[in-house]
Amino acid sequence: MADRARMSRATFARRFAGPIGQPPVRYFTWWRLTTAARLLRTSDAPLDAIAAGVGYTSTFAFSNAFKRRFDMAPGQYRRAGADPRPGRDHHPHPD
After folding, report:
1. Which residues of the chain have pLDDT under 70?
2. Helical spans, DSSP H, in 21-58
3. How far is CA 46 from the centre of its chain?
């Protein structure tokens, strides 16, 4: 993204974090996992398709990241019909 904005990575990260409230990598991780959580709740797409759709190259890496964020495995989350807005590491702008 910094290259597309024609900025250094440090400058881009600083300018991005100002209005968004967190660095680009953290925001992008939040976006990917929140999108995956929504897809788990609203579709019957296979886990590997959801993982690939939000940018993970392996289901294993996706599952580990998802567990860190939501404190449960993606399949467990889907079966539980859990809310995609857990208390920790939430979006920087309140709903």
Report:
1. 82-95
2. 24-42, 47-53
3. 18
